[in-house]
Design goal:
Length: 367
């Protein structure tokens, strides 16, 4: 729990002690990326930045762009109707300002991270749901207008195919959620138009996952996302970018061609594409040594990153910097069944760089 005193005082990280030394030749990822017109960023949590100086120093050194892992969601921002909690998000914004970093927003409309009052309110019907959406977006976009210029307005709105990790029994392209039930299939357009009306120059992003691999499920989801996005664009809905979460799974084959074609189809609609939550889940059968595991993760991610850059991605954010804090380690639903800790981020639990960091440097540095 972030110390409220520190957050309210706008205090960020404790005095930065030296992050674990990278090799002298290792330029920060933010610098390597920027030199080629790319952006590297990562997800952060206010409590970890405030309490872990080594992590804070590493984030400050490596990232140009931050995204709150939790602090920009409904259960963090509006835990009770009408009561807004901006302190944790302000702490992240303050940290970014002190380290010449930017912050992107995540996530305004999502079916998860809902405080208990929200689904109940949405179930009361469309008028109540529209009012709740408007009140939240109005308050949050007013609060963050100066500091956050890109929001995931829509998060995980595309239906997952039958047989995938979490199938969405649906007859359409939209995932069945309390938002869809309350407002019907026009809710994505409603949210985008409301955000645009509230902030004419905000970049509005639709963010989703499961569109990366060379599998039938991923192809179905790519086509569903393209249909939804084409419909929004054709109706003149204000959409600026598509976020590709890139929670990669090494059990799935990856082939550049279908993924690059997907990115190019989005770019042809006039949309920017960005990688928003990169991390890598290792295969069930692990390589015998950490060195071999880390090399395999870096090789898989390296092929994905090369394709992403070729397809027009210019911003890549990882979903954290260190395995120690990864949802892939902490969340029971995705943690490994064999008790091993997934090694899917650029730094290990001791904040030491792994080959995945070098793969990011190669991709973002134009290598
Ligand atoms: O609830 C406590 C809160 O009281 C406390 O102040 C705060 C301090 O950080 O922690 C809160 O705990 C948890 C929070 O993560 C921070 O660790 C929440 O209970 C927990 O639900 C939340 O889980 C996050 C999850 O999204 C739901 O918001 C995960 O960390 C985060 O990695 C995960 O991220 C999602 C993306 O938003 C969307 N794409 C998939 C990705 C992985 O599921």
């Amino acid at each position: 729990m972030i110390s409220r005193r520190r957050a309210l005082a706008g205090l960020g990280a404790l005095p930065a002690c030296a992050a674990p030394p990278l090799g002298a030749q290792e330029a920060p990822l933010r610098q390597v990326a920027r030199a080629r017109g790319h952006v590297f960023g990562t997800a952060v949590r206010a409590d970890l930045l405030a309490d872990d100086a080594a992590l804070a120093a590493l984030v400050a050194r490596e990232a140009e762009l931050l995204v709150p892992e939790w602090e920009g969601k409904w259960d963090a921002l509006q835990p009770e109707e009408g009561r807004f909690e901006f302190a944790p998000l302000r702490a992240i914004i303050g940290f970014a300002q002190r380290h010449q970093q930017r912050v992107r927003g995540h996530a305004l409309i999502w079916h998860a991270a809902m405080p208990p009052w929200l689904p109940a309110a949405l179930a009361e019907g469309p008028r109540r749901a529209a009012a709740v959406m408007e009140a939240h977006l109005t308050a949050v976009l007013r609060e963050t207008r100066e500091a956050i210029r890109d929001w995931d307005v829509l998060n995980e709105v595309i239906a997952n195919p039958e047989g995938s990790d979490n199938p969405s029994p649906t007859d359409g392209d939209l995932r069945p959620t309390p938002w869809l039930s309350a407002l019907g299939p026009g809710y994505p357009e409603r949210a985008l138009r409301l955000a645009r009306q509230l902030d004419p120059t905000l970049r509005l992003t639709l963010n989703d996952y499961g569109v990366e691999a060379d599998t039938p499920h991923a192809e179905v989801k790519r086509q569903r996302l393209l249909r939804v996005v084409r419909g929004l664009v054709q109706r003149g809905a204000p959409l600026d970018a598509v976020g590709i979460q890139a929670h990669l799974q090494m059990r799935d084959p990856f082939r550049p061609e279908p993924f690059i074609a997907f990115l190019r189809a989005l770019r042809e609609l006039g949309l920017a594409v960005l990688v928003t939550e990169l991390d890598v889940r290792e295969p069930d059968a692990l390589a015998p040594s950490l060195a071999e595991r880390d090399a395999a993760v870096a090789e898989y991610a390296g092929r994905f990153l090369a394709a992403a850059i070729e397809g027009g991605v210019r911003s890549v954010l990882t979903w954290g910097l260190t395995d120690r804090d990864s949802w892939l380690v902490k969340e029971p639903a995705v943690a490994r069944g064999d008790g091993a800790a997934t090694r899917g981020l650029p730094y290990d639990e001791a904040l030491q760089p792994k080959p995945l960091r070098a793969a990011l440097a190669r991709a973002l540095g134009g290598g």
